[in-house]
Amino acid sequence: MSRKFGAVAVAGAVTLGLSVFGLTGCGGASGSGGNGELAGQTIEVTGPWSGDEQKAFQKVLAVFEKQTGAKVNYTAAGDEEPTVLQSKVQGGAPPNIAILAQPGAIAQFAREGVLKPVTADVEQQVDAHMAKAWKNFGTVDGKLYGVYFKAANKSIVWYNDRLLTQAGYQPPATWDDFVKTVNSLSDTGVAPLAVAGADGWTLTDWFENVYLQTAGGEAYDKLAKHQIPWTDPSVKHALQVLQQVFQPKLVADGNAGALQTDFSSSVTKVFSDAPKAAMVFEADFVGQVIASNTKAKVGDDARFFPFPAIGKPAGKPSGSVVTGGDAAVAFKDDKATMALMKFLASPEAGVEWARSGGFLSPNKDMPLDSYTDDLTRAIAKQMLGADDIRFDMSDQAPAEFGATKGAGEWKDLQDFLGNPADVDGTAQRLEADAAKAYHT
């Protein structure tokens, strides 16, 4: 669901000199056709990023151009990218490479036979620098197509440090402590949570974090593929756990008000000069909204803690992270195309964007000091160190179920927020909508 929020502002660009890693290190020029070997070659790339995100990515591409002599043209397609790509494929003019956020779209294009599996040297680069989970996310029917370049950590709770400190609370590590904390805060007159119920995708992220921890990774994968029904007891149990915090007294402006609150507004409710809530759950990109829309200082006024561990002893982190991300896929398999794919899998590729801000890399060998602040480093470290990492479930679903405003999972979970007592009815509606979307 990394693209459901859309493009976000990237703060102050800082240019990184190529000498930081050296052109032959970390998959540099010698592995990407260096010394101008690709001079005269043009590579067309289509992606979702526009505005400041596009500028940051073009800085990354400029590093590759300087190393290889190739020219890379980038076209922004926005959130309609899968549709744009389908038209280009049908017209016989696909780009060399596309950046896709949805594993479902990668699988669709791969099974249509229009994507090219990566070459052996690209796969070796992925094996060397990525955790196995990221390779699995980009693999379809045993072949690697997607090289993940940008990631999102979606297992984060952000909090207003002043409000929590004044109330005498420490960031809770376990779900039980989290529930106790939000209820205690409510009793003192502080609204504990801002919930962006108007944007159904945020509710899917709430559910996915709870479900991963309560049902486990194997069940999570099966539910993502609709191999178990949404009426399964594991789904109902997750809804019951979520029900504990989806209570009117715990949510700023009550549940009805939350259903009128969009994502950006949920963040400003916590970090404005006159905050209306103490905490908001969402991914690392909350930091960009804080920086762009409030006077709060990320890492000082605005801090985070990992999504609370459910069913684990105190002091034991959950070890589970729900993630999203953007992967490069190739519609052509010529030398220049695969050279860029290999570069994007290298540790040095993400450094330029990391220095600019608004970026997390799934590459375990990109130095953490590439990030410009301690908070982003901590968020990246939590994601990279997770024992159990799973891709956003709604991004794996057919769009009519997992990515459509006012329909499917988004609408069903909005109805649940409006009436959290209706666990059975919610599960039944989710299953009915999933069955239609998955054609089962």
TrEMBL record:
Keywords from the UniProt entry: Transport
Matches recorded under InterPro entries: Bact_solute-bd_prot1, SBP
Keyword flag Transport: yes
Signal peptide: none
Name of the protein this chain belongs to: Sugar ABC transporter substrate-binding protein
Family of this protein: Belongs to the bacterial solute-binding protein 1 family.
Species of the source: Gandjariella thermophila
SUPFAM superfamilies xref list: Periplasmic binding protein-like II
Pfam families: SBP_bac_1 (PF01547)
